[in-house]
Amino acid sequence: MADTVRWGVLATGGIAASFTAALRTMPDAEVVAVASRTQTSARAFADRFGIPRAYGDWDMLAADEDVDVVYVATPHSAHRAAAGLCLEAGKAVLCEKAFTLNTAEAAELVALARSRGLFLMEAMWMYCNPVVRRLAELVRDGAIGEVRTVQADFGLAGPFTADHRLRDPELGGGALLDLGVYPVSFAQLLLGEPDHIQAHALLSDEGVDLNTGMLLGWSDPGASALLSCSVVADTPMTAAVTGSAGRIELPRGFFFPERFVLHRDGRDPEEYAPGNDRQSLRYEAAEVMRCLRAGETESPLVPLDGSLAVMRTLDAVRDRIGVRYPREPARAAATPV
After folding, report:
1. Who's near 118: CB < 8 A, 6+ residues apart?
2. Closest Cα partner for 58 from 96, 29, 30, 91?
3. Is the pTM above the cut of 0.85?
4. Residue of 91, 97, 318, 320 marked active site
5. What gap in Å lies between CA 321 and CA 316, rounded to an integer?
6. Is 97 a residue of the active site?
7. Strands 29-35 and 260-264
8. Dihedral sign from CA coordinates of 176, 179, 185, 190
9. How far apart, in whole angstroms, are the C-alpha atoms of residue 294 and residue 260?
10. pLDDT for 12-51, tens place per residue?
């Protein structure tokens, strides 16, 4: 692959704009095309960011021979279709989180990418942040002993009206897939897939979760995680992991942190603050481009099996709180454990 990686952006919403802005600061990245469902939206986005080509059709972006990798930034409900279209066309794909609406869709994308030998990654930018990477390394190396508890929350106060995408079942709305994916992913980064899942939620009249609490458990090493997400409350947005010999605390904005504090028994607190600028989107893009240049079809920082494991947890939480999206295939009801 050439030194400059050529990106296509599929969708024109807020996260697409943020990611495109980040790419424009990277000398080895070039955004060459954007696609939306309408030519008007694509053209406006292209003009805003100086993108050469604007398509009012997803297929045209997928067929563009000058695009090396497509960033899929649609609502969750369209991830399977959009990412699948690009993979079918032979394109590498970075797909926003939550990866898909459910595990079945995620498994289809993973199988498609693997069968074709194509790169695919969930856009879990938190995993690419050097502060989070260092935290995970310390935990793996036993700096705080055996992990006992994880706490994390992500909540926005809103208010979000009934027609907002976060309240729209057709778009996979609710707190869990949009915000709860971060606390769940944080816990599973440190402990893997849980053995036990309990949850409680406040549901909207439309049938999506507005405020959700989760208790995850791991038989080995006997750890638990207390997690929450909300679109009706401005929560602290902090995280902490506590072990048998200490704890690590992340401040507000734990999913794109600048620092953490390590507390170890018998020692003064130690702050890790490498001076990064919280631009996790750039770290995410850099990891994608590193993988493409190295010929890797999966990122070791955001492995596909890990994304599937997170989706299984999100499915189990939705089973327990009673959230199901329109046209979603029926699943066997989960048994609370």
Report:
1. 87, 90, 91, 92, 93, 112, 297
2. 91
3. yes
4. 97
5. 9
6. yes
7. unpaired
8. negative
9. 31
10. 999 999 999 999 999 999 999 999 999 999 999 999 999 9
